Automatic annotation (TrEMBL):
This is Transporter. The gene is Slc6a15. CDD domains: SLC6sbd_SBAT1 (cd11522). Na(+) binds at G76, V79, N83, N341, L470, S474. Belongs to the sodium:neurotransmitter symporter (SNF) (TC 2.A.22) family. SLC6A15 subfamily. It is a multi-pass membrane protein.
């Protein structure tokens, strides 16, 4: 019996040991099952790695080949057609050289801080505009969608301008240039100058009649202008081919499209400075009118120009910076690109006014010659006495000084009869004071000046090739502001999306190549971008400074950059910039209300422009453009606030739990203390104990269960995890 007792006892001990081993084995298998499973974001082709921890994990997101390529992309996006045909006009209109002071002040207060802000969030979160603002606050995720809508609106008409430029470029390989002289009309009896051209000018006629073949109002469609339709198709093909591979294709083109305009501007400046009258134009430009600088309108227009010159709110800045390494010094980039943009504007202004000074000198010489002939005729008729004319004056070679002397004498002597003589003062300043901007500068004033250049076809080719490159650089950033966030969010193939986006834009853009298309370009330019973009950037500022927290954001920047940004940015982001943007929004609204909504129509019979108000349907379109552009913001807010749709996929907040992989949850959507830059996320913290705090996603369920705190995607969510084995004395999970 004792022996049997010992055997039984040994067997019982073995069973206990085996039970303990089983228990430990079960616990280990459960622990291993948990440890082998992690939380990650459901993102496209990317595993989120943290730079601070020195992680060398895979990162399949495209990246810039080098820093120069990235800087050129940002410069190409920010430096656009507005630098050439908008900034010089604002200088001329708002005090000459004195305008540079308010512009620089507002560049420091609004431009650089907000540009730095967009670069920072894009570089760290590494998503397009939709993903970035959804990351910071899903309720404000509509900011990204609004940016995409505005980008698309702008792209629709901006590429039409590139199409116009392509047309002029193709017509520049002729000697003489086709807009050099008014065309002649022949009939059975005689030949005469085209009346519409004779009443205006050769370049004006060519622009409105030959290029646009424009109708008399926006209500008169007139059918498609097939020349411009072909040019628009060519412009979209160029954009599509350049963007189809993302930054891998567009980045290489940036070396040419961003640098070539500077070569042309410098060549134009050197050539213009060698022409008579160029210094008159530059002197007129930089003569400060300090009294004008104090007007509120000057500051409003300077703030608007700063705002749009840097491309704030479009999403292109965020998209380009999202392909950077996280440790890149984006503060240096923000300052560098901002000042490159400013000095490019000044360089373009020098070129424009040097050329316009030469043009004014040519026109002034013609004016003096014509009026000298009139004075000679009056002398012969006895209307003016020969005795009052100074003896040294030679009418056959009249100088500007002599003409002005004779003009003043005749005006004093014939004070009462002088208006009937119809003599002109022929002052260069009068010609230079004729403010022109936009298409009027590029396609009328500048083209007229180039007709007087020696070898004018060469300079015309260079000028329009420069405009094409400036336009394409901005278009690349605009399209990237659409493609990148959509690809990041909806996981579509970039090539297919790019082709669809460009094809659809071309089809919609046909409204801009009707004979009335120029009026629609004006409508979109005035109403589709200004107010919506201001609202977008205000919300961006609020999202970072007040929703996410400015103190936390500053700490994040310190960790990302390796140094603390100047305290200057803290006060700009939290106080000054939001107030300035709100003031600019109010001023823009007031200006829009006070300015009658309308456009300048070309009246063929009068051969001049006439301001017309939009018809009722036109007003509906204007209002619809503004509403559609900003509509995503309240819509997304209501959807997220009321949990109206499933938020389980297609965005940064979606979380799944897969066996054998870490599914990191990078978003703490509202009020969490997690760090944006550090990415302190739930999956990186210590593993929680198994229990009621684990929220299990039922097999086959299409949605994610939500933790009791009511936040989107917060909490641990489990799917396809093997059931834990039952343990003695405990219930199965």
């Amino acid at each position: 019996m004792p022996k049997n007792s010992k055997v039984v006892k040994r067997e019982l001990d073995d069973e206990v040991i085996e039970s303990v081993k089983d228990l430990l084995s079960n616990e280990d298998s459960g622990e291993d099952a948990f440890k082998k499973s992690e939380l990650i974001v459901d993102v496209q082709e990317e595993k989120d790695t943290d730079a601070e921890e020195g992680s060398e994990g895979e990162d399949e997101r495209p990246a810039w080949s080098n820093k120069l390529q990235y800087i050129l992309a940002q410069v190409g996006f920010s430096v656009g057609l507005g630098n050439v045909w908008r900034f010089p006009y604002l200088c001329q209109k708002n005090g000459g050289g004195a305008y540079l002071l308010p512009y620089l002040i507002l560049l420091m207060v609004i431009g650089i801080p907000l540009f730095f802000l967009e670069l920072s969030v894009g570089q760290r979160i590494r998503r397009g505009s939709i993903g970035v603002w959804n990351y910071i606050s899903p309720k404000l995720g509509g900011i990204g969608f609004a940016s995409c809508v505005v980008c698309y609106f702008v792209a629709l008409y901006y590429n039409v301008i590139i199409g116009w430029t392509l047309f002029y470029f193709s017509q520049s390989f002729q000697q003489p240039l086709p807009w050099d002289q008014c065309p002649l009309v022949k009939n059975a009896s005689h030949t005469y100058v085209e009346p519409e051209c004779e009443k205006s000018s050769a370049t004006t006629y060519y622009w409105y009649r030959e290029a646009l073949d424009i109708s008399s109002s926006i209500s008169e469609s007139g059918g498609l202008n097939w020349k411009m339709t072909a040019c628009l198709l060519a412009a979209w093909v160029m954009v599509c081919l350049a963007m189809i591979k993302g930054i891998q294709s567009s980045g290489k083109i940036m070396y040419f499209s961003s640098l070539f305009p500077y070569v042309v501007l410098i060549c134009f400046l050197i050539r213009a400075l060698l022409l008579n009258g160029s210094m008159d134009g530059i002197r007129h430009m930089f003569t400060p009118k300090l009294e004008i600088m104090l007007e509120p309108k000057v500051w409003r227009e300077a703030a608007t120009q700063v705002f749009f010159a840097l491309g704030l709110g479009f999403g292109g800045v965020i998209a380009f910076s999202s392909y950077n390494k996280r440790e890149n010094n984006c503060h240096f980039d923000a300052v560098l690109v901002s000042f490159i943009n400013f000095f490019t504007s000044v360089l373009a202004t020098l070129v424009v006014f040097a050329v316009l000074g030469f043009k004014a000198n040519v026109l002034n010489e013609k004016c003096i010659a014509q009026n000298s002939e009139m004075i000679i005729k009056f002398l012969k008729m006895g209307n003016i006495s020969q005795d009052i004319i100074p003896h040294h004056v030679n009418f056959s070679a009249m100088t500007a000084e002599d003409y002005h002397l004779v003009y003043d004498i005749v005006q004093k002597v014939k004070e009462e009869e002088f208006p009937a003589l119809h003599l002109s003062s022929c002052l260069i300043e009068d010609e230079l004071n004729k403010a022109v901007q936009g298409t009027g500068l590029a396609f009328i004033a500048f083209t007229e000046a180039m007709t007087h250049f020696p070898a004018s076809p060469f300079w015309s080719v260079m000028f329009f090739l420069m405009l094409i490159n400036l336009g394409l650089g901005s278009m690349f950033g605009t399209i990237e502001g659409i493609i990148t966030p959509v690809v990041d969010t909806f996981k579509v193939r970039k090539e297919i999306l790019t082709v669809i986006c460009c094809l659809l834009a071309f089809c919609i853009g046909l409204i801009f190549v009707q004979r009335s298309g120029n009026y629609f370009v004006t409508m979109f330019d005035d109403y589709s971008a200004t107010l919506p973009l201001l609202i977008v950037v205000i919300l961006e500022n609020i999202a970072v400074s007040f929703v996410y927290g400015i103190d936390k954001f500053i700490e994040d920047l310190k960790d990302m950059l390796g140094f603390a940004p100047s305290r200057y940015y803290y006060y700009m982001w939290k106080y000054i910039s939001p107030l300035m943007l709100l003031a600019l929004l109010v001023a823009s609204l007031v200006n829009m209300v006070l300015s009658p909504p309308g456009y300048n129509a070309w009246i063929e019979d009068k051969a001049s422009e006439e301001f017309l108000t939009y018809p009722s349907w036109g007003m509906v379109v204007c209002i619809s453009l503004m509403v559609l552009a900003i509509l995503p913001v309240p819509v997304i807010y209501i959807i997220r606030r009321c949990n109206l749709i499933d938020d389980s996929s297609g965005n940064l907040a979606s979380v799944t739990y897969k066996r054998g992989r870490v599914l990191k949850e990078p978003v703490n959507l509202e009020g969490d203390d997690a760090s944006l830059i550090h990415g302190k996320i739930t999956s990186e913290m210590s593993s929680p104990n198994f229990g009621k705090n684990i929220y299990r996603k039922q097999s086959g369920s299409p949605t994610l269960d939500t933790a009791p705190n009511g936040r989107y995607g917060i909490g641990y969510l489990m799917a396809d995890v093997p059931d834990m084995p039952d343990m003695p004395g405990s219930s199965a999970l």
